[in-house]
Structure formats: C-alpha cells, structure tokens
Specification:
By secondary structure, this protein is mainly β. The chain contains five helices and 18 strands. The chain has a single domain, classed as Calycin beta-barrel core domain (Lipocalin), CATH 2.40.128.20. The termini are far apart.
Length: 350
C-alpha cells in the first residue's frame, strides 16, 4: 500500500497537548511531537521525498474509472483500420456501416509502486444491448519503481515499456498516456505501438492503437460498465491538426496538477530541440506520434503529442511526452514532458 511521506506541516498538528501516545523531540527554541514509529518513515521521506510525492500526485490524476473509445490506425499513414467482420453486427454489415474501434472501460489503481490496470472492450452493438461486452478483460501491470523503462509524472502522464523482457531489443512495445483537462472534463489519450528503433522506414510498426477517454468515477475495479445512453463516441473522424513537431519547447516534467491550455499558457519557450530524419503520423482528436534523431547527441526520440488549444496571441500549445533512446544500445535513457510551442503565423495581409 502506498504511504505518503510525513511533511513538516503535518507535524505541526502534534505539538504539546496531543495524546500521551506521542513522544516529544526537543530542539533549541522548538518542540516537535511525533507519533511512535513515525521516525523511520520520516527519515526516509526527508532523504528522498520527490519519488513518493510524484507517485501520489500521478495517482490522484491517473487512477480511477475512465470510459472511452479504442481505435486502430495504420502505422505508416494513420488511416483507420476497420474491425473484422466477425466483430461487427450483421445489421451494420447490411447497412454498410464501417466500424473502426470499440467502446471501452478502463480501471486503474496504484498499488505501492505497481500500477494495476484493467481494460474491458465493449462489442459494437445496435441500439441498446446490455450484454454486448467482450468476454475477457485485458489486464496489465506497470512497475513504477526504480526503472528507466517506465516513468510516471506528477501531472498524471505516463510512458511505459510493455515488453519489459526486451528493454534493449530493436522492436519495443511502447505506451504513452497523457492526462489533461479540456473545456469540460478530465481526458486521457493513450497511444500504443511497436517502436522499430532501427527501422527508419517503419518506425511505428504496422498498427497504432489510440484511446481517447474521459474520467468517470473513483476506482471500483471495473465493476460498472458503460450503460445505454453513455457519453462515449468514436473519435475516428475528429480533426487532425498536429503534424510535424515544433522544436520550440519548455520542459514541464515537474509540473504539478492537471495539464490544460490555461495551465501551460504562462510557459514561454526555453530551448530549441535539434531534429533530423523526422517521421510523423497525425491522428484524430488532434494527436500525433513522431520519431526523430537528435544527431549531435546520437539519440533517437519517440514521442506522442496532444493539442491543448490555440489562440491568435500564443499560437498552438501542445503537451508532448517523449522517450529518448541511445542510438547504439537501444536503451531508454531519459523521459521528457514538454510544452510544444507552435507560434502564430504573422499576418501578411496589408
């Protein structure tokens, strides 16, 4: 079970007058009262408070019950892939209705440093068919302890290697998860694909899975599935505004709280990322996956970006989650979370 560290502010509540079960630590001009048995935990927290806080902050935004839609796209050009006929109701086939994905329930909880997740796909249905649920849920775990393969951020974002036994293999299954708030609610975009680290012609494999979800309720283990009249809809036909990456960026790995257009607007560009051999696949709902080379540092970068918003004054602002790889060993050496600044185009009229 995850235990939050005891901070100095918490101890202020345990001064003179607390129950006799407390014991007193005397220091010059200051007295602190600490619960019995709390000292080992306190010492550990003071030595390394950041990892514990980051996991707690991550869990408050990423954990819970989400509902959404999962769709599939070609890895070369991002065109949608239809579901096999066996998964589509007869009525849809007769009406020539094309189906590109599944509605889904996603349940997530942090257990210590182990992230436990369960996804249940809902079969395409005609009208209201409550029994149209896939027979088997998809479950996976992600270790968020001392590892470079997986990285959780206090903003609720996550990047993970789903094939842990292949951490230096030329082909690795990657997950990018970006949590943010749009105009109405908390959203999550997840992108999953096979990264071909040594194949410039097919860097994202044959298929890209994209999920677009909304927060529904606190964690309950996936006990409540999407009912009739839910708010879930396919995003396959949504706009695609993100393409090639903008090199003007700000590092926001330490950003605390929800990401949103308003939250990142105060950030100004801090640096320019050098990019070469850029490959990009634009996805619906204003998302994109990219791969490029940082030539001077011999680093290969895989990243997923989501557009947060745009104004005439600031241009487009996107949040971009990246994994940096050593070009020669295929080992992940660093993770980044950026605000990506795409400045407004100057008005040339008149």
């Amino acid at each position: 079970m995850f235990v939050a560290p005891l901070w100095r502010g918490e101890l202020a509540h345990h001064r003179i007058g607390c129950p006799t079960a407390c014991r007193t630590i005397s220091r010059p001009a200051r007295r602190w009262l600490v619960r019995p048995g709390a000292l080992p935990l306190l010492r550990g927290a003071l030595k390394s408070p950041k990892p514990a806080y980051k996991l707690w902050s991550f869990a408050t935004l990423s954990n819970g019950e989400f509902v959404g839609h999962e769709a599939y796209f070609r890895g070369d050009d991002g065109s949608p892939i239809e579901l096999p006929e066996s998964a589509v109701p007869q009525e849809f086939r007769e009406w020539n209705v094309r189906v590109h994905g599944y509605d889904e329930n996603y349940s997530e909880i942090l257990d210590g440093t182990l992230l436990r997740a369960k996804r249940q796909l809902i079969d395409p249905k005609v009208g209201c068919q409550e029994d149209a649920v896939s027979a088997q849920p998809h479950e996976h775990t992600v270790e968020l302890g001392q590892t470079r393969d997986n990285f959780a951020l206090p903003s609720g974002c996550l990047t993970a290697l789903l094939t842990a036994e292949k951490r230096t293999a030329p082909v690795q299954r990657l997950l990018f998860s970006i949590v943010y708030r749009d105009e109405r609610e908390r959203r999550r975009v997840q992108v999953e694909f096979d990264a071909h680290l040594e194949d410039d012609a097919k860097p994202f494999g044959d298929q890209i899975i994209m999920r677009r979800e909304m927060y529904d309720q606190p964690y309950n283990g996936g006990q409540q599935l999407i009912g009739c009249g839910g708010k879930v809809e396919s995003f396959v036909s949504y706009p695609r505004k993100l393409y090639l990456p903008s090199p003007e960026r700000t590092d926001i790995r330490e950003h605390k709280g929800e990401l949103s257009f308003d939250a990142v607007t105060p950030y100004d560009p801090e640096f320019t990322v050098e990019m070469d051999q850029v490959r990009c696949v634009s996805l619906p709902a204003n998302a994109a996956v990219r791969r490029y080379l940082m030539p001077k540092r011999e680093i290969v970068v895989y990243e997923t970006a989501v557009l947060l918003g745009e104004t005439e004054a600031r241009g487009r602002l996107s949040v971009t989650l990246a994994r940096l790889y050593d070009r020669f060993t295929n080992a992940c050496i660093l993770h980044k979370l950026y605000v990506e600044h795409d400045p407004p185009v100057p008005d040339s009229s008149g």
